[in-house]
């Protein structure tokens, strides 16, 4: 993955080392991602040590999305009712949100960013065939696929503002604007950051290749690519400015040609919108 | 006496108009694509059908 990094990406990809580390409990939870035998009590105790994170996770767990409003009082309840994997995704999202807080940037809205991330995560979870990825791995990859945009917005707010202006003026997608302006690609910067944060290799690769899944030889990247397209296409029903990223045909055939799965992913995204939007 | 509008009466949108509008809106999201138009049309159709099916489910 990193061997293919281009010169325009390398400066920012190297700069990710200056970004804050994730809270300790998030790092510890990430380490459990590829373990089959996890001590839930120990996870709950570790999470309980970080009060800010615990509060946020409980707020999310009690949001309308999970349909359990007010019924989850402790981290242990959350893990028991929602499952470790769902709680882990929430904890990782909360950790990334607190680690990467962009300044105010014209044309870049952090709230919209997280809305898109959450909708993509839900679409990816629905879209992923069990042979390609577990629903939870797809959810997390969807949630973090654009984390490079957030990293760049923190490292280079002026560059982010220029990109937003270019995308608006030339009516092109964010990725096209990066390529046309010869600026670092968020997919590559995001993968470098995910690697620095010790995310599993499969997740780093999916982030890296989500705009070029054919190059990534990674089927999870194809799922994220199609989930991204679905979310932007659904936005276009209400917002004429919405623009889907360039479609990779092989990825669409791989992950998007199953009309039934696409149908369920579209339905899942619409339900989030009808229920008041993202929980993040 | 109140009269109900027929689907094709002036001022009301027929079902086929609504379908066409939905497809136009979704297709607009793909305006910068560099893929074969027929393929793009198929993707739009898949998404539009999924959208309609989801709305129909919600109305049931």
Task: Name the chain pair whose interface involves the most residues.
Answer: A-B, 30 and 25 residues
Instruction: Work out the radius of gyration of chain A.
Output: 18 Å
Distance separating the two termini of chain A: 30 Å
**How many strands, what sense, and barrel or not for the largest sheet of chain B?**
none
- The oligomeric state is heterodimer
The overall pLDDT average of chain A reads: 87
Element string of chain A (H = helix, E = strand): HHHHHHHHHHHHHHHHH
Strand content of chain A: under 5%
Q: Count helical runs of chain A.
A: 17
What is this structure, in a nutshell?
Chain A is an all-alpha fold and 280 residues long. In chain A, 65% of the residues lie in helices and 0% in strands.
Topology:
The complex is a heterodimer of chains A (280) and B (60).
Chain A: H1 7-15, H2 24-31, H3 40-48, H4 51-61, H5 75-82, H6 84-99, H7 110-127, H8 135-144, H9 147-155, H10 157-170, H11 174-180, H12 186-196, H13 201-208, H14 213-216, H15 219-235, H16 249-256, H17 259-274
Chain B: H1 15-28, H2 37-59
Helix pairs in contact in B: 1-2
């Amino acid at each position: 993955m990193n061997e293919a990094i281009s010169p325009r990406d390398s400066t920012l990809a190297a700069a990710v080392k200056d970004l804050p580390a994730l809270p300790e409990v998030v790092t510890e939870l990430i380490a459990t991602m590829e373990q089959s035998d996890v001590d839930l009590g120990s996870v709950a105790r570790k999470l309980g040590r970080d009060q800010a994170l615990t509060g946020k996770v409980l707020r999310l767990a009690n949001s309308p999305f999970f349909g359990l409003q007010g019924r989850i009082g402790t981290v242990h309840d959350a893990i028991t009712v929602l499952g470790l994997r769902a709680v882990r995704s929430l904890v990782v999202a909360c950790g990334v949100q607190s680690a990467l807080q962009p300044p105010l940037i014209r044309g870049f809205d952090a709230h919209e960013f997280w809305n898109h991330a959450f909708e993509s995560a839900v679409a990816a979870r629905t879209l992923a065939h069990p042979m390609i990825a577990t629903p939870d791995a797809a959810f997390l990859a969807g949630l973090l696929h654009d984390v490079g945009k957030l990293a760049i917005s923190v490292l280079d707010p002026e560059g982010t503002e220029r990109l937003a202006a270019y995308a608006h003026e030339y009516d092109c997608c964010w990725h096209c604007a990066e390529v046309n302006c010869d600026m670092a690609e968020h997919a590559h910067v995001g993968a470098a950051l995910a690697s620095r944060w010790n995310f599993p290799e499969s997740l780093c690769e999916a982030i890296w290749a989500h705009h070029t899944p054919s190059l990534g030889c990674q089927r999870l990247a194809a799922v994220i690519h199609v989930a991204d397209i679905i979310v932007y296409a659904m936005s276009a029903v209400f917002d004429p400015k919405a623009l889907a990223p360039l479609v990779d045909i092989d990825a669409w055939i791989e992950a998007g040609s199953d009309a039934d799965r696409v149908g369920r992913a579209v339905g899942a995204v619409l339900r989030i919108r009808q229920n008041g939007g993202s929980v993040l | 006496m109140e009269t109900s509008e027929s689907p094709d009466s002036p001022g009301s949108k027929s079902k086929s108009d609504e379908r066409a509008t939905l497809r136009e809106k979704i297709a607009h999201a793909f305006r910068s694509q560099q893929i074969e138009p027929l393929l793009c049309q198929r993707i739009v159709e898949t998404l539009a059908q999924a959208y309609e099916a989801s709305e129909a489910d919600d109305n049931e």
